[in-house]
Specification:
419 residues; alpha/beta; seven-stranded mixed β-sheet; two-stranded parallel sheet; 14 helices; binds pyridoxal-5'-phosphate
Length: 419
C-alpha cells in the first residue's frame, strides 16, 4: 500500500436498503459546526432543546427524553441494563431478528428470558401477548415495533394498556419506525423506547434517541451508584443492585442531562448537533406530513412491484410503511440483481438474514431518501436488473409497468389504473 492514503471520496449512492439511509445535507452541515465544551451554557441549552424536540417526536411528556451515544442498540442496551436486575423475568415476543437481539441483550443483563415466537412475516395479536403475560408473569416486556428484518410493524396501541393492567414494564425498540409512522408513547402507555438516527430521521448512525417515564426512572434510581471520583457529599444512592454497565448507566446519564450536570461521559458533540437538526427538520415538516410521505412511497413502490409481476413478502396488513420486502423470483440470482443495481445505477437495496436469507430483498424508503424520484429510479433500475438476470415478467407486465404504476399512485390515479 502507498504510504499515503487517498482522500476520502465515497461513491455517490442512493441508499434504499433497511438503513442506514442518505443523510439530509442540513444534518451534515450541522455536524460540521464548531465544538463547544460540554458544560458551555450554549451547549447545555442545545441539550435541553434536543430533549424538548425528542418529546415532540415521541409524543410524550416524559422528562427523560435524551440521547444515548452509540448506534440504536446502545439505546436498547442502556434501557435494558439499567432496568433489568439479575433474575428479573423478561418476556420477548420474537417476530424477526431484532426480537432475538432484545432477548440476547436481556439475557446478558442477567434476566430470566422467556420468548414467544411468530413466523417471520407475521406479527402478534394483543391476545397472544396478554396470554403470555398471564402465563409467565414477567416484570418487563421487550418488543420491537418495526422489525426491518421482516418488514413487519407490530401494532402496539393495545399492548401498553395490557402491560399496565398487569404491572409489567413495557420497552419498545422503535429504531426503524420512529419518524416513519406514529410512535405515540403516552397514548399507548409505553414505559420506555429507543431508536437510532439512521433510518426515518435522516441522520447518520451513532446517536440513539430514547425516552422513559417516571416508572422506569424510579426503578433506575433505586439502583443509583455514582462513580467514586465524581460523587458529591450528600448524594443519595439507591439500595438496589448496581447497574452492570458504567457507560449505559441511566442513573448517571440522568444526572448528566439534568440541572445537576454531573459529569459522566463526554457528550458526542457532533452527534448531538446531528440529532437536534434531524429532529428539528422532521418536526418542521410535521409528523403527519412525514408519515404521509412514507405512506405514499410505500403505496407507490408496492404498486410498482406488483405491476412488475413480483410478489411482496409478509402479511401486507402489517407492512412497515418505510421498508418493503420483495420475494426474489425463482431462478433469479438475488445477489446479481443487487450488484447490477449498485454498480450500474448506484442504488443500494438490502439483502436479508436468517430464514429469509436469499429469499427476499428489502427496499427502504426512509427519511431523506423517501422521495418520489428515488422510488421511480429504484423501480426502473430493478426492472432493468431483473431483465438482465433473465426474469420474464408475468403476462401483462412489460417493461416500464412498475414505474407507470408507481407514478399513477403519486398522481392519484391508482383507482383509475385498477379498473
Ligand atoms: C428494529 C431494529 N432494532 C435495532 C437495530 C440495531 O441498530 P444499530 O445497528 O444501529 O445498533 C436495527 C438496525 O437495523 C433495527 O432495525
Amino acid at each position: 500500500m502507498n504510504e499515503t492514503v487517498a482522500e476520502l471520496n465515497p461513491p455517490p449512492r442512493i441508499l434504499m436498503g433497511p438503513g442506514p439511509v442518505g443523510v439530509d445535507p442540513r444534518v451534515l452541515r450541522a455536524m460540521s459546526m464548531p465544538m463547544l465544551g460540554q458544560f458551555d451554557p450554549a451547549f447545555t441549552a442545545y441539550m435541553n432543546e434536543t430533549m424538548e424536540l425528542l418529546r415532540r417526536l415521541y409524543r410524550t411528556a416524559n422528562r427523560w427524553s435524551l440521547l444515548v451515544d452509540g448506534t440504536a442498540r446502545a439505546g436498547a442496551e442502556a434501557i435494558l441494563v439499567s432496568t433489568i436486575a439479575p433474575g428479573d423475568k423478561v418476556l420477548v415476543p420474537v417476530f424477526g431478528r431484532f426480537g432475538h437481539l432484545l432477548a440476547e441483550i436481556s439475557s446478558r443483563c442477567g434476566a430470566e428470558v422467556v420468548t414467544i415466537e411468530r413466523e417471520w412475516g407475521s406479527v402478534f395479536t394483543p391476545e397472544e401477548i396478554e396470554a403470555a403475560i398471564r402465563r409467565h408473569r414477567p416484570r418487563l416486556l421487550a418488543i420491537v415495533h418495526g422489525d426491518t428484518s421482516t418488514t413487519m410493524l407490530q401494532p402496539l396501541a393495545d399492548i401498553g394498556p395490557i402491560c399496565r393492567a398487569n404491572d409489567v414494564i413495557v420497552y419498545v425498540d422503535a429504531t426503524a419506525s420512529l419518524g416513519g409512522t406514529d410512535v405515540a408513547i403516552d397514548a399507548w402507555q409505553i414505559d420506555a423506547a429507543s431508536a437510532g438516527l439512521q433510518k426515518c430521521l435522516s441522520g447518520p448512525p451513532g446517536s440513539s434517541p430514547i425516552t422513559f417515564n417516571a416508572r422506569v426512572a424510579d426503578i433506575v434510581n433505586r439502583r443509583k451508584h455514582v462513580e467514586a471520583g465524581i460523587r458529591a457529599a450528600g448524594v443519595v444512592e439507591g439500595n438496589g443492585p448496581r447497574i452492570a454497565s458504567n457507560y449505559f448507566d441511566l442513573a448517571m446519564v440522568m444526572d448528566y442531562w439534568s440541572e445537576s450536570r454531573l459529569n459522566h461521559h463526554t457528550e458526542a458533540t457532533a452527534m448531538l448537533y446531528a440529532a437536534r437538526e434531524a429532529v428539528r427538520i422532521l418536526l418542521a415538516e410535521g409528523l403527519e406530513a412525514c408519515f404521509a410521505r412514507h405512506r405514499i412511497a410505500s403505496d407507490a413502490l408496492t404498486a410498482g412491484i406488483a405491476a412488475m409481476g413480483l410478489e411482496l413478502f409478509g402479511d401486507q396488513r402489517h407492512k412497515m410503511p418505510n421498508v418493503t420486502g420483495v420475494m426474489i423470483p425463482a431462478g433469479v440470482n438475488g445477489e446479481a440483481v443487487r450488484a447490477t443495481m449498485l454498480n450500474d445505477f448506484g442504488i443500494e437495496i438490502g439483502t436479508s438474514f436468517g430464514p429469509l436469507h436469499g429469499r427476499i430483498w428489502r427496499i427502504g424508503t426512509m427519511g431523506y431518501v423517501c422521495r418520489k424520484e428515488n422510488v421511480l429510479h429504484c423501480l426502473a433500475a430493478l426492472e432493468a436488473a431483473l431483465r438482465r438476470a433473465g426474469f420474464k415478467a408475468q403476462v401483462g407486465a412489460g417493461a416500464g409497468e412498475g414505474v407507470d404504476a408507481a407514478l399513477a399512485v403519486y398522481h392519484g390515479e391508482a383507482a383509475a389504473r385498477m379498473k
